[in-house]
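[recover] target loaded
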């Protein structure tokens, strides 16, 4: 009888471990890449030349190039040096969280300049006909925020909807916002409404880094929740909601508004891949891909490039493959 009870206890203990194991298994590892893997806040695109380009936080907007999307080479920086106006926002002219897109026959590179812990910030934009590092011409400020504002002008992401151009942005300071841009200049329309898309019910409102994807009649808002930039102690994770309108309201699959802390969990840390976030989405040969950074627990928390195929369930919601 004791042996039966012991076996029952051991079986129960084993079964108690299964949810954790199953949860870890629910998140696929990123595809294997080689070469220069170090990156933070990646934005990826396949250029008209056939090359893949990835730009990121670090350097003067750090650049990587690849011929196959798997082996990446360090390609220097988008700019040879910081434009002078960047120094209005930090002493080192340090840019953050770029976003690359192609529109009207040229590439557009949006980025942010700020200092840690303040919303004295600005989003700028540069253009290029090739999208390659060293070819960008800065076009100046798109949108700014000050310490009197309740939002933070960083983490830009561009999307087109209904023949109009929009920019989602935001970090903490009550979360994710959106403004309409002038399609000719790529800059915020003066006096445009600052829409509110997502936040948390509790300070410090830890949601940032929005990215919007259109799919099957909906706009999907991907965002990074919780804390980045702490190596293996980072708690970044990616959540998603959707809306029939680009300006919201965005809801998760249970109907909870992202303005009230909602958001389906799409990807979180698992195994060596800690603090998954800083995400963007790009399309290549008809396939959507999720690009993000993770902190490698097997390499002292070094931030590295994560790439996973992004699939769509029968109910329309995204899943990482």
């Amino acid at each position: 009888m004791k042996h039966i009870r012991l076996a029952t206890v051991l079986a129960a203990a084993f079964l108690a471990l299964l949810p954790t194991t199953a949860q870890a298994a629910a998140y696929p590892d990123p595809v294997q890449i080689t070469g220069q893997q170090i990156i933070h806040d990646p934005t990826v695109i396949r250029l008209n030349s056939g090359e893949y380009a990835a730009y990121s936080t670090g350097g003067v907007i750090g650049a990587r190039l690849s011929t196959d999307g798997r082996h990446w080479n360090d390609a220097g920086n988008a700019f040879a040096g910081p434009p002078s106006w960047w120094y209005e926002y930090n002493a080192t002219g340090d840019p953050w969280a770029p976003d690359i897109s192609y529109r009207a026959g040229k590439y557009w590179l949006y980025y942010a300049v700020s200092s840690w812990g303040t919303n004295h910030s600005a989003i700028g934009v540069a253009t290029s006909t090739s999208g390659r590092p060293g070819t960008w011409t800065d076009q100046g400020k798109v949108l700014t925020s000050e310490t009197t504002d309740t939002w933070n002008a960083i983490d830009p992401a561009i999307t087109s909807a209904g023949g109009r151009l929009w920019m989602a942005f935001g970090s903490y300071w009550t979360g994710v916002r959106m403004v309409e841009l002038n399609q000719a200049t790529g800059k915020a329309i003066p006096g445009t409404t600052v829409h509110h898309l997502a936040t948390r019910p509790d300070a410090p409102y830890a949601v940032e880094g929005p990215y919007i994807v259109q799919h099957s009649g909906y706009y999907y808002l991907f965002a990074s929740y919780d804390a980045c930039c702490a190596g293996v102690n980072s708690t970044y994770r990616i959540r998603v909601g959707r809306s029939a309108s680009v300006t919201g309201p965005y809801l998760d699959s249970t109907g909870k508004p992202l303005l009230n802390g909602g958001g389906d969990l799409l990807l979180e840390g698992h195994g060596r891949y800690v603090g998954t976030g800083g995400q963007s989405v790009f399309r290549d040969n008809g396939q959507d891909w999720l690009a993000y950074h993770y902190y490698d627990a097997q390499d002292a928390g070094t931030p590295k490039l994560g790439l996973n195929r992004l699939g769509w369930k029968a109910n329309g919601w995204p899943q990482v493959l």
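[recover] notes: The first helix runs from residue 2 to 25.
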